[in-house]
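Person: Please work through this fold.
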Amino acid sequence: MQTKILLDEGEMPKRWYNIQADLPTPLDPPLHPATGNVITPDDLRHIFPMELIRQEMSAERYIDIPDEVRDILTLWRPSPLYRARRLEAALKTPAKIYFKWEGVSPPGSHKPNTAIPQAYYNREAGIERLATETGAGQWGSSLAFATGLFDMECTVYMVRTSYEQKPYRKSMMQVYGAECIPSPSPRTKSGRMMLERDPDTPGSLGIAISEAVEDAASHDNTNYALGSVLNHVCLHQTIIGQEAKQQLAAVDDYPDVIIGCVGGGSNFAGLSFPFAGDRITGKRPDTDIIAVEPAACPTLTKGLYAYDYGDVAGLTPIMKMFTLGHDFVPPAIHAGGLRYHGASPLLSRLAQDGVIRSVSCYQNEVFEAAVRFARTEGIIVAPEAAHAVKATIDVALQCRETG
C-alpha cells in the first residue's frame, strides 16, 4: 500500500494557475484608499514592482514561473502527498484521507512558494529592501529566507501577541538576516497611533500591515510584500494544488472534498484553486470545497461581503471581500496566522458564489484533533493547519456513518 506519493523535480509545474480566467464574472476592482477611485497600476508602483502588479490584475489562465524561481523551489519541491492511513484506521472510516505536506520547505511552511517570486521580482526591479507583516511568523521567516537568497534587506513587523508567544520565529528571521519588530511599534505613525489608543493591545495582522505599508511608502529603496490575501499571492501558491492533482492522478484518484484552513486565504487558495477551477468549468461540478476558520475570527462564516480596507490605518487599497471590519482586533488565540479581519477577494468571490463553503471551529476542539493526528500520523501540525485536521476528521466520521 502506497503512503507517500512523490513527483520528480522535472514534474514540478512550470506555470501558475490564475483562477481569475475562469471566474464567471470579473472581480470588483480595488479602490484607492484616499480618493475612492478604481486603482490603477501607477497607484501601486510605490510599493510593488510592475510584474507583480501585472499578475495582480491579469486574467491570463497560466503565468510562466521564471527559471531562477523554479530552480530555488526545487530545494524542496515538489512536496509529498501522503495517504493518512493510520488516521483512517483510528477513525474506522471508509474515507481515503490525503494531505499535502508543505512542512518540507526550509522555513517549514507553504509561504516560501510566494516569498521566492516576490523577492525575485523586486530584486529584478532594483529594490534593495522589503517590509512586511507576519502573524505567527511563518510568512516573516519565509520572506527573510527569500530576501537572504537574493541579497536584499528585510524588515518584519510581527504581531505582538505572536512575537511574545513564539520567540523562536524571531530568532529564525534574524538568522536569515532580517530585522523583526513587535507590532504595534513606535517606529511608524500608525503604530504610535495604536499604542496611544491601547498600550496593551495584542496587535493584529491589520495593524502590522499598516506599519509595513507605511514603512515601504516612506523609503525609496523599499517595497512592500504581502504573505496572503492578494491575487498574485494566491496565484503563486497554486503550485500546491497543481502538484496535488498530478499526485492523485498517479494513483487514479480525484478528491470528493477539499479542506484547508483560512486566515487571509493563500494556503487554502494554493490547494483548492486548481480544483475549484475544475468545479467552475464543469469538469468536476460536485467537489465540496471547505474553508475552515477559527470561531474567534470567522471572516467567511459571519463577516459581511463588502468593500473594506486591508489594514487598520486605511493605507491599503479598499477591496471587495468578506470582512469583520478593518478595526476588528481578534482575541489572542494560538493560531496567529488566522487572526485577520478580511479574506482574499478571490476566495471571497468564490464563497459568495457558492463555489466554496466555510465552517468555523473552537480552539480546544482544534487542538484535540491535532493531538489525534500527531498520535496516528506522527506530525505535530501548527495551530493553523490543525483547523483543517479538525474539519477533515469531522467529514471522515460522517463518511463512517453514511458508508
Summary: The chain has 17 helices and 14 strands. The radius of gyration is 20 Å. The first strand starts at residue 4 and ends at 5.
